[in-house]
Amino acid sequence: MSYVITSWELPSVPVAGTTHRFPVRHIYCVGRNYADHAKEMGGDASKEPPFFFCKPGDAVLPVEAGQRGRMHYPLATADLQHEIELVAAIGRAGAKRTADNALELVWGYATGLDMTRRDLQIEMRERKRPWDIGKAFAEAAPIATIHPVSEVGHPGTGVIELDVNGARRQHGDLGQMIWDVAHTIAFLTTMYELLPGDLVFTGTPAGVGPVVAGDRLDGRIAGLTPLGVDIVAHTAS
Ligand code: MN
Description:
Elements: E1 12-14, E2 21-23, E3 27-30, H1 35-40, E4 52-55, E5 60-62, E6 69-72, E7 80-82, E8 84-90, E9 106-113, E10 116-117, H2 118-126, H3 132-135, E11 141-143, E12 147-148, H4 149-152, E13 159-164, E14 167-173, H5 181-191, E15 199-201, E16 209-210, E17 216-221, E18 227-232
Parallel strand pairs: 3-15, 5-11, 6-18
Antiparallel strand pairs: 1-2, 3-4, 7-10, 7-16, 8-9, 8-15, 9-12, 13-14, 13-17, 17-18
Bound molecules: manganese (II) ion (MN).
């Protein structure tokens, strides 16, 4: 292949315990999937069908095993917020799945952060415009090593929490999801054919809040590699 500009490497995430990597295609995210977070965002906890938004695949910020990630404070916001989330990594193509067979598409799971320019998201929401600039930007999807289903199964319960500078900000249990992973993926496959390399961020419990340059984020999900990310000052090029 001969490109007319310099090409770049496929975005990818390390796989726990190996030197192999998971290549990233699309990033799908589900909104308001824990009742307590839905309430803090001004919604209610009624069981409506889930809704989705996207981040570009190259928004992924892979954190190598044993290391901490460095996320640059993004442009154009004064309210960068954290959302700790379970991430499902898709290994097989599938469309029109049901909750009974949706999990067959999942290759593995990881701890991730849906980083959000909240001021821009809310402004766009109120103006009935797309959320993209609030959710889709460089390094907006930090993620720790992926664990294969063959090792960790399909986590249905277990702690999910986030500390900022050592103080607990978010705490919940995977069992508190309004739509579990199987139902979330089933809904998603009614609208898109999921493809190998896709990542699905499955929503966040209550306690989202702002971070600034210099802050240290430490996320944990039971059974998975924890995710450490340091926010650093933006460096314009
Ligand atoms: Mn989220």
